[in-house]
Specification:
It contains 21 helices and 11 strands. The protein has helices spanning 12-24, 29-34, 39-42, 61-73, 76-85, 110-127, 152-160, 184-192, 210-227, 234-240, 248-254, 280-307, 314-328, 346-358, 382-386, 390-395, 413-416, 420-443, 476-497, 508-522, 532-545; strands at residues 44-47, 50-53, 141-145, 174-178, 198-203, 241-245, 261-263, 333-338, 376-379, 401-407, 466-471. Bound molecules: 6-O-phosphono-beta-D-fructofuranose. The site of 6-O-phosphono-beta-D-fructofuranose has 14 residues, from loops.
């Protein structure tokens, strides 16, 4: 446990923020724009090829000043130094959180370099067709078997960067991801794949996650049967399995041959691990040059975060905006809305990054907190969401903060020559819709000349706050910066809330109970003593299984 800090909600700055929020409650974003011609200049930042526009948030300069004061009182500087000094900022597990070290080109971290070198060798062999299956075929398909941080980051980034090509002479394998413990994805992948040309990446920091081990086991049995080899065949393991983990012994015990083991360390949290060898699927998508660009982009953002004053600091401002919305305006959910379909998997990635990090209700000192912490994060590709849940954003009863993402440049003649013009028109259309929606959410029907005679069901009240993030373009470098931005934002919020963002005790007990339930499903007579729901459900399943 850590020494107690002042109780956040009893500080004078917190009370001042509450008073200010009360006073400004009825102020409409439309009025904030109407009364301040400089609003965009005052509430936007541009660095690392990211423009962050906070001007459509319901925040005044007075609120921002107080929030900055709050961050200072919560000793943000000291915590930032502690993070980058490698101190044990993960207090419940006594670990540092040095994901930033994985992307620091100047760091003296030979263990990081050596794993990158091994990864580079593997990537080169796969992309050049030199990595062969046990019967001599080149690898055409790679299946990433992993879950949570061992899937969401690589999946999101590999999908986002598909249009960036690896180098000439390199052929990208088809990538597949299998995470769900019920076998849905692995069964489908295996139906389509040829065991002779398939390589399995078993990605698991702990190498104990049952979801992953069961999927890996299914893939291994399928390979052995398909190749006519024993389950333990050493050559098959050498040619068809790579392991990525912090636990070399467990990989070896499972059967991953030592030369196919990529390591990372306990100081890299699972949801912060895409910068490590867990990012292998990303490197297989953009090549090692592209992967290093991703790291460089993240390092750009690390530097930005470390040197910029708080009001000019993108992750800090994002965090303060969230704190304002959650704790003072009582807006406790945020929709992530990418208007570039390549960022389709970003909401799911952020769900883990933010909610697993900051979904906490106990302070670092072990006390229950008396304020809200992480909001509920959800989202969808923006243009598609317009045809699904935007109704609620515009006319529902829930206050929702939105986060719009768009790219300024996209299709190029060089890559999309066959349809570049039409595609560029589609890009412009998506961006226009992004601007339209954030404007309408902010201003309501005041965005146009409002017709006051319309019935209530046709009116738009607006005042739903949003942030817009514009990337110059979506490249490994800008994506790296964007993701590091989110990581630091989560950290800053945790500092303000006084919680530990680097553990995840809330996911453990379910795993323990699931073991009991597995026994119950096998033998429902063991259900005595359980709650009536669990008892009845297990019996129902048993009855209908036959
Ligand atoms: O159960 C949650 C969790 O531990 C996440 O934090 C993690 O990203 C995921 O499971 C997968 O863990 P591992 O990489 O150890 O298999």
């Amino acid at each position: 446990m850590e020494p107690k800090q002042d109780v956040l909600t009893s500080t004078s700055t917190w009370s001042q923020l509450e008073h200010l929020a009360e006073k400004e409650k009825s102020t409409h974003v439309a009025d904030l724009f109407a009364t301040n011609k400089e609003r965009f200049e005052q509430f936007s930042l541009n660095d690392c090829q990211i423009l962050a526009d906070f001007s459509k948030q319901r925040m005044t300069p007075a609120a921002r000043d107080l929030l900055v004061k709050l961050a200072e009182e919560r000793q943000l500087s000291r915590w930032q130094d502690a993070l980058f000094a490698g101190d044990l900022v993960n207090c419940t597990e006594q670990r540092s959180a040095k994901h930033w070290l994985l992307r620091d080109p100047g760091a003296e971290a030979p263990e990081v370099q050596s794993q990158l070198d091994i990864m580079e060798g593997m990537v080169g062999r796969i992309l050049h067709g030199h990595w062969r299956g046990v019967l001599g075929d080149a690898i055409t398909d790679v299946v990433n078997v992993g879950v949570g941080g061992s899937e969401l980051g690589p999946l999101m980034a590999a999908f986002a960067l598909q249009s960036a090509q690896p180098h000439e002479g390199q052929t990208r394998p088809r990538l597949h991801f299998a995470s769900s413990m019920d076998g849905s994805q692995i069964s489908q992948a295996l139906q389509e794949l040829n065991p002779r040309t398939t390589l399995i990446l078993v990605s698991s920091k702990s190498f104990t996650t049952v979801d992953t081990l069961h999927n890996a086991n299914t893939a291994r049995g399928w390979l052995a049967r398909g190749l006519g080899l024993a389950y333990t065949d050493e050559a098959m393991m050498r040619c068809h399995f790579i392991g990525i983990s912090a636990e070399a012994d467990r990989m070896t015990e499972w059967g991953i041959v030592p030369v196919n083991q990529l390591l990372f360390w306990d100081w890299v949290g699972g949801r912060y691990s895409l910068w490590s060898a867990i990012g292998l699927p990303i490197a297989l998508t953009v090549g090692m040059v592209g992967f290093r660009e991703l790291l460089a982009g993240a390092h750009d953002m690390d530097s930005h975060f470390r040197v910029r004053p708080w009001t000019e600091n993108i992750p800090v401002m994002l965090a303060l905006v969230d704190v304002w919305n959650i704790n003072f305006l009582d807006i406790r959910t945020r929709a992530v809305l990418p208007y570039d379909g390549r960022l389709k998997h970003l909401p799911a990635y952020l769900e883990q990054l933010e909610m697993e990090s900051n979904g906490k209700s106990v302070s670092r000192a072990g006390e229950p907190v008396d304020y809200h912490t992480c909001p509920v994060i959800w989202g969808e590709v923006g243009p598609n969401a317009q045809h699904a849940f935007f109704q609620l954003l515009h006319q529902g009863t829930q206050p929702v903060a939105s986060e719009f993402l768009m790219t300024a440049r996209r299709y190029t003649e060089a890559v999309h020559s066959s349809a570049a013009q039409e595609l560029e028109a589609q890009h412009a259309l998506a961006n226009a819709n992004c601007l339209a929606q954030s404007r309408l959410l902010a201003l309501g029907d005041r965005a146009l000349e409002p017709d006051l005679s319309l019935p209530a069901y046709k009116r738009y009240h607006g005042n739903q706050p949003s942030t817009t993030l514009v990337l110059d373009e979506l490249s490994p470098r800008t994506l790296g910066a964007l993701l590091a931005m989110y990581e630091h934002k989560v950290f800053v919020q945790a500092v303000i809330w006084g919680i530990n963002p680097f553990d995840q005790w809330g996911v453990e007990l379910g795993k323990v109970i699931a073991k009991d339930m597995l026994e119950l499903i096998a033998d429902p007579s063991r259900a005595e003593g359980l709650d009536s729901s669990s008892r009845a459900l297990s019996r129902h399943i048993a009855k209908h299984r036959q």
